[in-house]
Write a structure and sequence with these properties.
The protein is an alpha/beta fold. It has helices at residues 2-8, 49-59, 81-85; strands at 14-21, 26-34, 65-72, 92-97, 105-111, 131-133, 136-138. Helix 3 links the parallel strand 3 (65-72) and strand 4.
Length: 141
């Protein structure tokens, strides 16, 4: 996955995560890149619809689709407001930060539901308050 993200530089990379989930861990067994069709791929990602359909149907051999990944070429691995506003309804969202080329960082998170948000916090004023970190592992077949 790091190579896929590095190869997409200077743009953000994006794709799908297949694997398993339990109450205490997300296990990523397969990573399928998807073309980034964003209007400005330097600072955002949009999963290309045609590539997405191919990836979903072409990779559906066993493990379920559990999430989406994308990279942050110039910023840290925490979700931005744009990331949270455009969230995908999967168990896992993963961000790969390449801001420090020698030390890439990966953050896996899950969006909290509206019921879990504090009624006193304005929507997305504190992005960290709208997601929870997930423990994860990448399994190499």
């Amino acid at each position: 996955m790091l190579d896929l993200c590095r190869n997409a530089l200077p743009n953000e990379a994006c794709g799908l995560l297949y694997g398993t989930e339990s109450s205490d861990e997300i296990r990523i067994c397969r990573i399928v890149p998807v073309f980034n069709a964003a209007e400005n791929p330097l600072s955002s990602f949009t999963l290309d619809p045609a590539s997405l359909v191919k990836a979903v149907y072409g990779a559906a051999r066993g493990e379920p689709l559990i999430g989406v990944y994308h990279s942050h070429p110039r910023s840290g691995p925490r979700p931005s407001r744009r990331d949270l506003n455009g969230w995908w309804p999967f168990s896992c969202q993963l961000i790969v930060s390449l801001a420090a080329a020698d030390h890439p960082e990966i953050f896996a998170y899950q969006i909290k539901t509206e019921a879990e948000h504090s009624a006193s916090v304005p929507r997305l004023e504190d992005p960290a308050g709208y997601c929870r970190e997930l423990p994860f592992s990448v399994i190499h077949p």
